[in-house]
Write a structure and sequence with these properties.
mainly alpha; 20 helices; disordered N terminus
């Protein structure tokens, strides 16, 4: 009964009705979207083959560097501003105008920087079509203005529009994917379906939410850039950890191992997507009036949730690998089990960032945490990959999962240290 009373207390104190709606729609979006990938996975990998599918994953990982440049890190400070000024349409319009303008400039820079690599690096130029079509993912990020809907607490609108077009991906894949050469078609379908939803959300924002364009101010742009820079650095180092690992697997281990790692990661994401929006959904309310008691409760409940998910992955992971990838992909099961431990650190670290570091304006802690994670992950990967290659080369893919899990644990250690030594006091 005490647990139920605590949940009820948090529910009322944080105006949980709007939080619950936001969380529900963000969770639906983040469950259905990867679930579509999981549904399509057995069909696509059997039609294209693990090597061809691995190339598709590899291309997605490479373009993420350009996508992250476009994203830059505007989302968290922009969502904070919108959440604190829900009725100020003039400020909202000014903010959206400047974020969109800067993302447009960054998109042009990203494409201009990416194209020379496509035409000069052999691993890219030998598969030019799939890398050129991956540029559609930059368009999807350009019009991704989720921070606006998150800030005003209307994730329902954004989620429905995005889901409609992503669901249309299913019949398109079954109609047009039929062999290894169709990984380019798969990239086209993915890019288009991911782009149309954000474009429609952008038009809805202008039409229904009365957001208009305002004159561009370089001083305001500098302020936004300054606020976003710590998050950009954070995301870049996070990207260097995740995408660089996939790129290294593709270069040194092969595209089949990319597919194995991707399957293990997909299984973990099936469960992670139920939990990853807890902190995001709480953000608009908590950022305005966080309390140490409520944050500690969040830590406790997220620990219970994480441990439950880890046990579930250990129990059902192997059957899922057989269903999705078949007997040739069984190495994806230990990869998934090891990666499942990152769910705990993901939730707890996210709570530190959203409810402690951001409200305290300690943005640089966010950057330091990701630098630690990136450096430790890549260093551990090189060491463990060398060790596995010497004593058990058939299990070398496990070095990637172990590196990810260990670096996530170090992120958590740093967050706890930073909170205890520099911030811990009544908020």
């Amino acid at each position: 009964m005490a647990i139920i009373d605590n949940i009820r207390s948090i529910y009322h104190s944080l105006k949980s009705r709007s939080i619950l709606q936001n969380y529900t729609w963000m969770t639906i979006l983040n469950i259905v979207s990867p679930l579509i990938g999981v549904i399509l996975y057995p069909f696509v990998i059997r039609k294209t083959g693990s090597d061809s599918y691995g190339l598709f994953v590899f291309a997605q990982s490479v373009i993420q560097y350009a996508v992250q440049l476009v994203s830059f890190g505007f989302d968290v400070p922009a969502a904070k501003t919108i959440a604190q000024n829900k009725t100020d349409k003039a400020l909202q319009s000014k903010l959206v105008t400047h974020v969109l303008a800067m993302k447009t400039m960054l998109s042009l820079i990203a494409v201009a920087a990416f194209l020379p690599f496509v035409f000069t690096l052999s691993i890219l130029s030998d598969n030019k079509p799939i890398f050129l079509w991956s540029i559609t993912l930059i368009v999807a990020e350009l019009f991704n203005l989720q921070f606006f809907f998150q800030g005003i607490g209307k994730m329902k609108v954004m989620s429905i529009m995005s889901l409609v077009f992503r669901i249309l991906m299913i019949p398109a894949v079954f109609l047009f994917i039929d062999g290894p050469e169709d990984n380019v078609t798969y990239m086209i379908i993915t890019g288009v379906t991911l782009s149309v939803g954000p474009i429609c959300n952008f038009l809805w924002m202008i039409w229904k939410e009365n957001v208009s364009f305002t004159p561009f101010s370089f001083s305001y742009a500098r302020k936004l850039t300054k606020d976003a820079l710590p998050f950009f650095c954070t995301y870049i180092f996070g990207l260097l950890k995740t995408s660089t690992l996939t790129v290294l697997i593709g270069i040194f281990l092969g595209m089949t191992d990319v597919a194995v790692y991707d399957l293990g990661n997909k299984i973990v994401n099936i469960f992670r997507n139920f939990t990853q929006n807890i902190n995001t959904a709480l953000f608009p309310e908590v950022v305005n009036k966080a309390s140490r008691n409520n944050i500690n409760r969040v830590f406790r409940y997220e620990t219970i949730i994480s441990l439950t998910v880890i046990i579930l992955i250990a129990v059902v992971g192997y059957p899922l690998v057989l269903i999705l990838g078949g007997p040739s992909m069984t190495m994806a099961y230990p990869v998934a089990v090891i990666l499942s431990f990152t769910i705990y650190s993901y939730l707890i670290v996210g709570a530190y960032l959203n409810f402690i570091f951001v409200p305290s304006n300690k943005y640089y802690f966010v950057t330091i945490e990701q630098i630690i994670a990136c450096v430790s992950c890549l260093t551990l990967f090189l060491l463990l990959a060398t060790l596995f290659n010497a004593i058990a080369p058939e299990y070398i893919i496990l070095s990637v999962a172990l590196s990810m899990a260990a670096s996530s644990a170090l992120e958590l250690v740093f967050c706890r240290y930073a909170d205890k030594k520099t911030i811990q006091k009544p908020l």
